Amino acid sequence: MDNTGDHESVQCLVKKFYKLQEERVQIYKIFDEQHQEYLSCAPNYDFPKYRQAVHGVTQEFSKVSQAIILIEDKLRNSHNRSDLATFIRRVQDEEKTKLELVDENKRKH
Predict the structure, then answer these.
(1) Torsion sign (Cα): 35, 38, 41, 45
(2) What gap in Å lies between CA 42 and CA 71, rounded to an integer?
(3) Are 20 and 94 within 8 A, CB to CB?
(4) If you write DSSP's letter for every residue of 59-93 in order, what string do you get?
(5) What is the predicted pLDDT for the residue at 3?
(6) 62-78: b or e for each residue (b if 16 or more CB lie within 10 Å)?
(7) What's the farthest any 2 CA atoms get from each other in the chain?
(8) Which parts of the chain register pLDDT below 50?
């Protein structure tokens, strides 16, 4: 996300939020593909390669999350749209829970 200041419109910020959510979907797909590739190597798992892949995915999730936090902040503080900011916060919280569940599920396999 670029730092164009607080002059972005509410509509622009919401569009950026949706774009970032789409990026998140793509990151989940990559994560799943990498996990499937790791499992397909049984019994000769390449854990260091998988660990590096997980690290990369984690960094991408973090970038998206940080960009969304900036949007949430701008909506709340620069546009007085706590309704939208609260909605985005709930989505962030749900995404965190989802990621924890996905991680837990992948660790079982």
Answers:
(1) negative
(2) 42
(3) no
(4) HHHHHHHHHHHHHHHIIIIIS--HHHHHHHHHHHH
(5) 46
(6) eebbebbeebbebbbee
(7) 55
(8) 1-4
